[in-house]
Amino acid sequence: MRANATLMNIQQVIFIPLLGTICIALFYLSIRGPPPPVAEDVFLPQQSLVAKFHLDNSTFADLSHEGDAAWEALLPANKGVVLASNLTSGLHFWATVAMFHQLECLVMIRKTMQNLGSSSPEPGDRSFHASTEADSVLDAVGYCFDYLRQSLLCSADSTLNPVAELTVGDGHVLITDGNALWQQCRDTSMIYDWAIRSGQPSRSPLVHLQNQDP
Length: 214
Ligand SMILES: *[C@@H]1O[C@H](CO)[C@@H](O)[C@H](O)[C@H]1NC(C)=O
Ligand SMILES: *[C@@H]1O[C@H](CO)[C@@H](O)[C@H](O)[C@H]1NC(C)=O
Fold this sequence. Notes:
Elements lengths: L1 H31 L16 E6 L3 H4 L6 H5 L8 E5 L6 E5 L1 H20 L9 H4 L6 H19 L7 E6 L2 E6 L4 E6 L2 H10 L7 E2 L7
Antiparallel strand pairs: 1-6, 2-3, 3-7, 4-5
Helix pairs in contact: 4-6
This protein binds 2-acetamido-2-deoxy-beta-D-glucopyranose (2 copies).
InterPro entries: UstYa-like
Pfam families: UstYa
Keywords: Membrane, Oxidoreductase, Transmembrane, Transmembrane helix
């Protein structure tokens, strides 16, 4: 009897406050709403829209090693990491800008395709065929496909790419050419500047800077 009573007490001591806390938390959320889905209070540079005419570029379309330098030059030396500032707390943290993360994924997919087509793959690339471990190339490329899928759906670019009729021999095929078009693009220059100014990320995830003067 005595042991049971103690058990009851422990249950009351633990569960009643826990239940209370959950109720208060749910009540708070019902008033405040769920936390905002995007990072708040973080400084982001203003990107103006610029009109650009897109043409086919054979350098980037080239899957041979001739095209490697142009693709690699798309990423800044620090791979697009920036020192971001939380305007409310004054804290700073390192983050990779999504545009650069997306480009890095494309560079990796391109490199994997090159290696698949090559008779003498680079060391470590064999693992693409053999291994499905968490740190394998297969895993990283799979992650990239999923990440790019979500990025494309998120930006939902509604630029209209006309469908054209192409004469092939005696017949016609319908093609969609996404190039040779005017596009409204967000200016990338301030994002490149930001990454270049940020330099290499330090070990510490949070760096507290006193002074925000440029
Ligand atoms: C910025 O700081 C505020 C106040 O501390 C915090 O509520 C907010 O979540 C922080 N934002 C990010 C992205 O860390
Ligand atoms: C293609 O890209 C390369 C490398 O960025 C550049 O030098 C070249 O001018 C571009 N060609 C066209 C036709 O835009």
